[in-house]
Amino acid sequence: MKDVVGSPGTWSGMSLRVSQCVFAGASVVAMASAYGFSNYTAFCYLIASMGLQLLWSFGLACLDIYSLQTKRDLHNPVLVSLFVVGDWVTAILSFAAASASAGVTILFERDVHFCRMYPQLSCGRYELSVILAFITWSFIATSAVSMFWLLASL
What we know:
Order of helices and strands: HHHHH
Number of domains: 1
Helix content: over 70%
Shape: elongated
Strand content: under 5%
Largest sheet: none
């Protein structure tokens, strides 16, 4: 069995999960605090996707902490298969939500100039939330690849 960076039950795995939680939570807070986000489906989808990512990552971070405290091995093929599927599903959902929200944000900023016409829209917060969502996705993608690599090595 290989020692893969970011595998469950390791410090690197826990740090990946905690980073996912922090950035997903920050993305949700930035978007939820923006005026008028609920009028646009892509932004609601971003909140739902980042909320799901937050819950998934928090659960796995807690599992990593438990594993580190009790020195249990989480490299069971069935358990790692569950992690692989969960990571890939949340990675795809998060990337789709971040991309859709980025498209709407660019449309507002550059194409139709909604941000100038309607200054009450929080376009800066929309942008911040999208940036945080893409950072979250980069951590999720790293985790998904390492889980897949670990599964292949079991």
